[in-house]
Amino acid sequence: MEIFVLRLSHRLPRDERISTHVCLVARAFGANSVVYSGQHDSGLEESVKKICASWGGQVEGSAMPFDISYEKNALKFMRECKASGYSIIHLTMYGLPLPEKLNEIKNSKKLLIVVGSEQVPGEVYELADFNISVTNQPHSEVAALAITLDRIVNGRELTKEHSWSFGSRIKIEPCAKGKKFRKS
Amino acid sequence: MEIFVLRLSHRLPRDERISTHVCLVARAFGANSVVYSGQHDSGLEESVKKICASWGGQVEGSAMPFDISYEKNALKFMRECKASGYSIIHLTMYGLPLPEKLNEIKNSKKLLIVVGSEQVPGEVYELADFNISVTNQPHSEVAALAITLDRIVNGRELTKEHSWSFGSRIKIEPCAKGKKFRKS
User: Fold this and answer.
1) What's the pLDDT tens digit per position in B34-82?
2) DSSP letter, residue B170
3) Residue among A69, A45, A17 nearest B142 (CA)
4) How many contiguous H segments (helices) and E segments (strands) does chain A have?
5) Binding positions for S-adenosyl-L-methionine (chains A, B) (predicted)?
6) Chains A–B, number of C-beta pairs less than 8 Å apart
């Protein structure tokens, strides 16, 4: 399955760290790529590229390494994705509970998962094939994305094997106390 | 089960939003209370209290509403928790994979889940009963906390019933498009 994440309306400096966390969760939890709209931010792009350089950018089952790109017009991008066969999942506290729609979502071959910032335009709700809630409480787009990806990949991201598949020379050897590495 | 979350070394202004997301995830995913160390931040405390005022602060099975408090000395606080019977879980990308220790963790009656900022002192690893990884990749303490709580409460946080249990007058009625509320 191919999974893109779209981070809507990135604002500087307000969203610097939250958007970085969104991107790193996308990568660590098995998405293929992240796209963001709002303000262009070369610092955000650098942060993601730096993590890929240190920790690997390879994505299981994908020909392309994990990457980040900017789209000025998020709605146009969503419409184009839809036209080319992506199912669009919009994460919102107002949507249907994730477990209710998970099987349908997992049947899709290509997914675009959209996470918003504070004001999401009504058209996003309309364009989405699934408006999905990860709890009906206010919390965090970082957490909502993590839980959604975790359910889609069946918890595979939690295994050492998944973490070791990113093609980095440095691999963490999980341990009960302290920090252990392996270099290849 | 009683669950406390400890957010280590809050820094201003850098961690303002990440720490807020940590607190909101703690609340939405079923923790009883959040404690933070580092710089005192009345803005962070206000944000959490405001969410509780609007969306409810009641925690299922708990006599006390969800709350936030400050601890100057995090290590002392951890030692006190340990002495009074809490199992301490420290979330770190170097720890053992969550699924390996989940059953042991769920057998505890009282949990303190510790999430760090960039440099976590070695003593935290020593004091922890469980050093646990949510992936062995760098991503986000917000996501790590969400996945850990999700597994501990068996996904209960994703149900409408859980979201409706916070005692707020406004309840979200999950829907396929748009936003629906119910007022009681």
Assistant:
1) 999 999 999 999 999 999 999 999 988 888 899 999 999 999 999 999 9
2) E
3) A17
4) 7, 8
5) 91
6) 172
Is residue B29 situated within a structural domain?
yes
**Domain of residue B50, CATH code:** 3.40.1280.10
Amino acid at A31: A
d(CA B5, CA B30): 11
CB within 8 Å: B177 and A131: yes
Tell me if B173 is assigned to some domain: no
The answer for residues whose C-beta is within 8 angstroms of residue B50's C-beta and 6 or more apart is: none
The C-alpha atoms of residue A83 and residue A68 are separated, in whole angstroms, by 21
Number of CB atoms found within 10 A of residue B14's CB: 14
Tens of pLDDT, residues B150-169: 999 999 999 999 999 999 98
- Could you tell me if B80 and B128 are in contact, meaning their C-beta atoms sit under 8 angstroms apart? no
Do the domain assignments include residue B167? no
Residue B30: half-sphere exposure toward Cβ, Cα within 13 Å:
23
Q: How far apart are CA A88 and CA A127, in angstroms?
A: 7
Count of domains for chain A: 1
Determine the straight-line distance between the first and last CA of chain B, rounded to whole angstroms: 29
Joined together, the tokens standing for residue B117 give 């900022």
Q: Containing domain of residue A135, as a range?
A: 2-183
Q: What is the pLDDT of residues B1-39, one digit of tens each?
A: 999 999 999 999 999 999 999 999 999 999 999 999 999
Query: Looking at the predicted complex, does its ipTM rise above 0.95?
Result: yes
CB < 8 Å to A122, chain B: 178
- Give the bridge partners for A6, in sequence order: A35, A114
Nearest chain B CA: its distance from A71 CA (Å): 23
Residue B97 in domain: yes
